[in-house]
């Protein structure tokens, strides 16, 4: 009876984690539009500075009011390093990629994240590699390719540079998802995200200052400021709180596979705001993405290796305990 209750509680936690990750990725899809808008006015360093600087300012009072448990002193260096990896290097690569490639191609390149998380997680012993997870990742990624089929044919010259930069960004995200999960569980999702985001934001702001990236801000109008505020409030604070919330409750691969929702959301927003046509391939892609997520999520019901995998991960150099 107790085992059944524990199993049910774990399943509910898994579902909440996956739903939070999907909402996070959906918000990330809307952030691509704001990033594409700002990339014509300021460079990737300044965009990241605004996004995560504002995000940190919004998350800090929330963390203090909630009285959440901050990462332990022994975890500070790792939290800061992960923050620089995810909230500094990732946005630089992400924003720079959109200079060279289209949003559609960039979204597809970012959708390699679940595959990278699956392979790296298995290699580090942080997560068991199963057929259902693998099949779910492949189906969801194919769904993204199908949804973006018509948009991928109109690529600018040299778009491959942006594609490679976006795949490098996906690698940063995969490593963060795997290495941060145990630290998030030892503290709390908001507190850990706040601390790591602060490290990344400080790094980006210093680089932006040295590089002179803030000079064009003097010519900002209302649209640019609204885009920057949206990225900070929704594209950073809310998006990455939900991401951390998800990592606390489910595996890195199940969280990562939700990124396939990102380009689907971007396409739907484009259809709603820009009157872009909704084609059959978008509908088919949506079905494939959600089918892939469902397959990967339900694999947990037959995996008895969750605890041993976690125990094995504790031997990974103090990063994945």
From TrEMBL:
First-listed, main subcellular location of the protein, grouped into a coarse class: membrane
One GO cellular component term: membrane
Domain called EamA: residue spans: 16-148, 161-297
Domain of life: Bacteria
Pfam families tied to this protein: EamA
Alphabetically ordered keywords of this record: Membrane, Transmembrane, Transmembrane helix
Region annotation Disordered: where it falls in the sequence: 302-321
Transmembrane domains' residue ranges: 12-39, 45-65, 77-100, 106-126, 135-153, 159-178, 190-212, 224-243, 255-274, 280-297
Its membrane topology: Multi-pass membrane protein
Protein's cellular compartments: Membrane
Family statement: Belongs to the EamA transporter family.
Record's protein name: Drug/metabolite transporter (DMT)-like permease
The species this protein was found in: Bradyrhizobium sacchari
């Amino acid at each position: 009876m107790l085992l059944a209750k524990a199993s049910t509680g774990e399943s509910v936690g898994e579902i909440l984690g996956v739903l939070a990750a999907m909402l996070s990725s959906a918000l990330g899809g809307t952030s691509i539009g704001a990033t594409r808008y700002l990339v014509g006015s300021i460079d990737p360093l300044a965009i990241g500075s605004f996004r995560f600087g504002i995000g940190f300012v919004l998350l800090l009072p929330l963390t203090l009011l909630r009285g959440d448990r901050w990462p332990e002193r022994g975890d500070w260096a790792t939290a800061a390093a992960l923050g620089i990896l995810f909230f500094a290097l990732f946005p630089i690569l992400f924003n720079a990629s959109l200079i060279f490639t289209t949003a559609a191609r960039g979204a597809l390149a970012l959708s390699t994240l679940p595959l990278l998380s699956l392979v790296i997680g298995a290699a580090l012993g942080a997560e068991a590699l199963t057929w259902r997870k693998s099949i779910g990742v492949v189906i969801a990624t194919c769904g993204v390719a199908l949804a973006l089929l018509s948009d991928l044919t109109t690529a600018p010259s040299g778009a491959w540079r942006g594609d490679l930069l976006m795949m490098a960004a996906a690698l940063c995200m995969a490593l963060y998802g795997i290495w941060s999960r145990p630290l998030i569980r030892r503290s709390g999702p908001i507190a850990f995200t706040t601390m790591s985001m602060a490290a990344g934001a400080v790094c980006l702001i210093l680089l932006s200052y040295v590089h002179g990236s803030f000079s064009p801000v003097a010519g900002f109008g209302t649209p640019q400021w609204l885009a920057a505020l949206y990225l900070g409030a929704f594209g950073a604070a809310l998006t990455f709180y939900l991401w951390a919330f998800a990592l606390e409750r489910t595996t890195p691969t199940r969280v990562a596979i939700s990124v396939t929702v990102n380009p689907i959301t971007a396409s739907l927003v484009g259809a709603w705001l820009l009157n872009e046509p909704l084609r059959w391939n978008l509908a088919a892609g949506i079905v494939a993405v959600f089918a892939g997520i469902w397959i990967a999520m339900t694999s947990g019901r037959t995996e008895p290796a969750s605890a041993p995998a976690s125990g094995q991960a504790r031997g990974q150099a103090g990063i994945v305990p």
